[in-house]
Amino acid sequence: MRRIVCLGMAVRDLVFEVPRLPAVPQKLTASAMHLRGGGMAATAAVAAAALGASVEYWGRLGDDDIGRELRRDLQSRGVQVEALTVPGTRTPVAAVMVAGNGERMLAVFRGRLDDSAGWLPLDRLAAAQAVLADFRWLEGAQSLYNAAVGRRIARVLDADVGDPAALHALLPLVDHAIFSQQGLADLVGSSDVEQGLRKAAAETAGVVAATLGERGSMFLIDGTVHHVPAPVVKARDSNGAGDVFHGAYTFALTLGRTVVDSAHFASAAAALKCLSGGGWEAVPDREAVNDFMKGSKC
């Protein structure tokens, strides 16, 4: 069984189903509300575990009921949890609006968490084939990547919006940096995806890529751009799809697949997540992804 460590955010999502996303301030009546697990690294960990990996989630959970619930939820999905809980801390929470077409809008409270990373069980990386981190906990991600450098371990970065300085600090430490489209634009100051990838590539010796939603993803590999289309599905909920992409991509790398093949596999997993609905319960397993790829010719 392939072993993966995912480090970073775990979040409680409060999801409201609304008829449309607001363009101006207004009151909307939700048709449903759900309490779900979320967070970049935590969702990637759930995805990799569902696909068949042995997964450890390393992160921080608040000293509150939300943190305890998230810990139990991760464990129930086959994820081993190594999470620091410091008295008085609070777990991150996100308010998410999901429209009928699957698009989403969210506001995130990042919690009050301890930034110390000295407790991380870095010796356990000897058994891992890959690590993945988001950039929300810079000290932890730096410790993880620095410990992984020199080992034959794939080092994957989930690079989203919010902290370009953290991304600049982490890019030299990874060999696979996968951005959201807006995260890449914020980093390089350009909305041109190919130009942005080439600028980002100057900061790392590895692969750089950007996910583009329903337009798929774009990878820059050894100076050559590869476009990986996304399967066409009727999305029910796109929340967490990018995190599923990262978890599935990392898992595929541990199987020895090429970067492009891993991207196709990840695109299929993310599309199935959008098709199936919201939450960790909508994350597909490996058999479902393989069957979907055969049917959609991914």
Task: Describe this entry's structure for a reader.
The chain is α/β, with parallel strands linked by helices and 298 residues long. The chain has a single domain, classed as UDP-N-acetylmuramoyl-L-alanine:D-glutamate ligase, CATH 3.40.1190.20. The chain has helices at residues 40-51, 65-76, 138-148, 164-170, 181-188, 193-201, 241-254, 259-276, 286-296; strands at 3-8, 11-17, 32-38, 54-60, 79-84, 93-98, 104-109, 130-134, 154-159, 176-180, 207-211, 217-221, 224-228. The strands form 2 sheets. It has a 9-stranded mixed sheet with strand order 5-4-1-8-9-10-11-12-13, sandwiched between helices. A 4-stranded mixed sheet has the order 3-2-6-7. The model has no long low-confidence stretch (mean pLDDT 95).
Could you provide a short overview of the structure?
This protein is 34% helix and 26% strand. It is of the alpha/beta class. Helix 1 (40-51) crosses helix 7 (241-254).
**Biggest beta sheet attributes:** 9 strands, mixed
Query: CATH homologous superfamily?
Result: Ribokinase
Termini, distance in Å?
A: 25 Å
What structural category characterises the helix and strand content?
A: alpha/beta
CATH C-level class:
Alpha Beta
CATH topology, which one? Answer: UDP-N-acetylmuramoyl-L-alanine:D-glutamate ligase
